[in-house]
Amino acid sequence: MCLLYLLSEVKRENENGFPALYAAHLHHGLRAKEADEDQLLVKEYAEKLDIPFFTRCVDIKKDSQNQKIGIEEAGRKARYSFFSELLESLSKKHASIYIATGHHKEDQAETILMNLFRGAGMDGLSGMRPKSENRIKPLLFSNKKDLYRLSKEKAIPFSEDRTNKSDEYTRNQWRNAVIPLLDEIVSGSPVDKLCDTAELLSKDRDFLEEEAKKLSEKWLQADENGRFFMDSKVLSGFSFSMSSRLVRQLYFFSLGSRRDLEHHHVTDILRLSENGTSGARIHLPHQKLAYIQDGKLFIGTEDDFIEKGAKIFWRKGKNLLLAGDKVEPISLKDLLKCEQNTKHIADTSFYINILRVENKERLVYNNEMWHMKEDMLSGVVLRTKQKDDTFQRAGQKGKKKLRRLFTDWKLPESIRDRVLLFARGSEVLWIPGIGHAEGFTDALSEGKWLAEYSQGEWKDMYRIFITKEEERNE
């Protein structure tokens, strides 16, 4: 309420200030009648100040259970979700909008202590920023005594939330037990000392971030589809202090926010980048992911990678190979007539190859290699999924519709019609990255297949395999 009063005074006294001020209140549904009274109090005061008022009622306890998170976290998410929706609605009227919240000095001290015992680094120990993107905290340098005094002097109505006295919530334990104990032990105000430390650390943080911005201007790039990326090798050349900030820069440029990006996410992204395997990916909050493609680190949504030309989909440690918008079927029999028994797969970075196996002892197996006898190659083509396709993985009973299997395997709908596979008619024989129905792909399936179909003979055997363009140029 103090914040509402102060902002209304700034607006009233400063002609060059902001043109509009709005009040927003979220009813958390936790304190029944008391919460209703709080909502009415804010509404009436906003009306007295002639400020448009927005409100929403939610069931935070239910949200907490559904999302499997704590009450405090559920409340924070619900508040900012409400604020963000308001922002989107009001942005049609205003070019620039900020969310102002009433956090004060004691809130800052509590946050720093909580972050310290979560194992936070410099960023977490710097506390809340007075300004972060479109969120501002104008009261962050005021303590509660100052605000109580202002409320009394200006007759600003306020209400004490009785749950603030309850130790049921983690923050309240720091507020009601730890900080009062520190007040008895340390010389001077522990709140002031914690905030002073945060201010010192924030200066170092700001310097490092400024250096990271300079480096990102040099190394942050965009591809032809507008996706931002960084070269994995370049990223691995920096110290963790700098590379972690560069990852945060990439995250921000790619998604427009650093919301919910935590330290362990950054560490996982750096580990992914250091690995550098094309097609490797890790999942991030809110259906986002980090992805390596041709030595480049990308961050975005799954559709960013699939619909904008990605040729590999990482599934359970193996690569599914994807065609472009359209692929012309390639006959394996016809491939035997091609020069060097190889052919480029149109609109991809892949080549299909077929070679006679001259020496059984030199067999090599990998995810993109398949073996078949020559007399079984007839009618086999490389293509993508068709309506009536079926697949029966070797060693399993019963054929299933391929479209149903793709659903069971939870493949994104946007790639299902692009997965490269080998089939004879409607019978799918091999899907690189998933499995095979005939022939063999490893030593175990080799023994079983030869025993069943070839009476143990090794004759007229061919290796069918996929290579990437960069592998051919090495």
Beta-strand content: 15-25%
CATH topology of the largest domain: Rossmann fold
Write the CATH architecture name of the largest domain: 3-Layer(aba) Sandwich
Q: What's the CATH C level of the largest domain?
A: Alpha Beta
The low-confidence runs, each spanning 5 or more residues with pLDDT under 50, are: none
Separation, N- and C-terminal Cα atoms: 67 Å
The count of strands amounts to: 23
Number of domains: 3
Mean pLDDT: 84
Biggest beta sheet summary: 7 strands, mixed
Structural class category? alpha+beta
The fourth-level CATH homologous superfamily of the largest domain is HUPs
Task: Tell me what you see in this structure.
This protein has 474 residues and is an alpha+beta fold. The protein contains 17 helices and 23 strands. The protein has helices at residues 2-13, 33-48, 60-67, 71-90, 105-116, 122-125, 144-153, 170-185, 190-219, 232-235, 240-255, 263-275, 302-306, 332-335, 402-408, 443-453, 469-472, and strands at 23-27, 53-57, 99-100, 131-132, 135-136, 221-222, 228-231, 281-284, 288-293, 296-301, 312-315, 318-321, 330-331, 342-344, 350-356, 369-373, 380-383, 390-391, 400-401, 421-424, 427-431, 435-436, 461-468. Strands 13, 17, 18, 19, 20, 21 and 22 form a seven-stranded mixed sheet that branches. A five-stranded antiparallel sheet has the order 6-7-10-9-8. Helix 3 (60-67) crosses helix 4 (71-90), helix 9 (190-219) crosses helix 11 and helix 11 (240-255) crosses helix 12 (263-275). The longest helix has 30 residues, at 190-219. It is elongated.
